Amino acid sequence: MPADETATAITISREPFDSADAAALRQAQRDELDARYGRDDHEPGEKPTADSVPVFLVARTPAGEPIGCGGLRPLAGGGAEIKRMFVAAPARGTGVAVALLRAIEEEARGMGLDRLVLETGTEQPDAMRFYEREGYSRIPLFGPYVGSDLSVCYARDL
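Now predict its structure.
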């Protein structure tokens, strides 16, 4: 199926952060990152929770299969951080990630937010290329990522 058909055929909706499908997608992301970094301590800072990530989206195929996710963690100083953005490998390159990112941005706008930030890692060049292509600019490390030799941070004004 061509990329544009896949992206238009999926559904993206809010789901509890700790639902079974959301948890399975986040675990798949952790497994992939653990393999890329060769260890499981590659994310500085406080782990996201249902309380700290009040908006969590899940992308699904027309058959209902969960294929991607991402959420928003509001920041004390304003704006929000994109957390746990992930698309399952078989769905990559099909437009799902772009559709999911745009849905996250729309959720942020609906919350009255005008800026999003995120952290990705040095072993995720595909993620860095994706965010740069989608209008995110590299920024200095922020918050818990300051001083991390594995972190790369981005921001976008909405």
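The beta strands are 11-14, 55-60, 66-74, 80-87, 115-121, 137-139, 151-157.
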